[in-house]
Each structure stands twice: as structure tokens, then as C-alpha cells.
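Students often ask why inverse folding is considered easier than folding. One informal answer: many sequences map to the same fold, so there is more than one right answer. In these notes we will look at a single instance of the problem. The structure comes first.
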């Protein structure tokens, strides 16, 4: 949990401007050295920061979407920039990308582009799975 909170404090303070994201859930397990997650929500977007086996990861979903369908930052990068980047383990570069893209993403999923945006994520997820697993 400490790793998640440190990352948020060092790199993601922009998420906590008044009226934007807030903490809504968290959990710490004793397994694998303290796996944990923190969930933040805005009016349109849910972010889950996860510490899993020594790696910090992020996934997100629309507030009004499926509760089982989560997307990775690589899919968002693919949609907005045209490439999914490399490793999705969070670092300063991913924080910078999130700072410059999360408002655009919220705009897309909160407006008339919502369905097309979600379909684009699903298409990229299928493409990535095919690349990884054949």
C-alpha cells in the first residue's frame, strides 16, 4: 500500500484537485509481500492502482460501464497516441501520460463518443491479446 500512496503523492497530485478524483476503496493483503489496491473515482471514471508482486499497475473503467471490464493505460495510449507503448508497470513516464490524457479520456467516455471509444478499447485489447498469445 505504501508504494501506491507514494506514487500518487509523488506523481499524481493532479488527480486530487477539488471536485475531481476521490478515494473510494482500498485493500491490503498479506500474500506476496503485501499486495494492495486503491480505487479512485471521478464523476465519470474509476482508476484502480494495484501493487501486485512488486509491480505497480493501473487499470480503469467508466463509472457507468461494466464492473468487470477494466482497461489498461496502454490501451488508452494506443487510442490517443497511436501506440500502446512498452511495459505498463507504472513509472514517472506513465504519470506524465496520465496527467496529459485523463481529461480527454473523461471527455470521450462522458459524451457522445462513449460507445465508439469503448469499442476502440475492446478492439485494441483483442489486438494486443492476439500479439501476445497468437
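Output (designed amino acids):
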Amino acid at each position: 500500500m505504501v508504494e501506491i500512496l507514494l506514487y500518487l503523492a509523488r506523481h499524481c497530485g493532479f488527480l486530487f484537485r477539488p471536485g475531481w478524483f476521490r478515494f473510494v476503496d482500498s485493500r491490503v493483503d498479506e500474500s506476496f509481500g503485501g499486495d494492495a489496491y486503491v480505487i479512485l473515482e471521478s464523476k465519470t471514471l474509476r482508476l484502480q492502482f494495484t501493487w501486485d508482486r512488486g509491480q505497480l499497475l493501473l487499470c480503469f473503467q467508466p463509472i457507468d460501464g461494466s464492473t468487470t471490464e477494466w482497461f489498461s493505460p496502454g490501451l488508452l495510449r494506443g487510442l490517443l497516441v497511436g501506440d500502446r507503448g512498452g511495459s505498463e508497470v507504472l513509472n514517472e513516464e506513465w504519470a506524465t501520460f496520465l496527467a496529459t490524457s485523463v481529461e480527454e479520456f473523461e471527455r470521450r467516455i462522458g459524451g457522445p463518443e462513449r460507445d465508439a471509444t469503448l469499442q476502440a478499447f475492446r478492439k485494441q485489447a483483442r489486438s494486443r491479446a492476439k500479439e501476445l498469445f497468437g
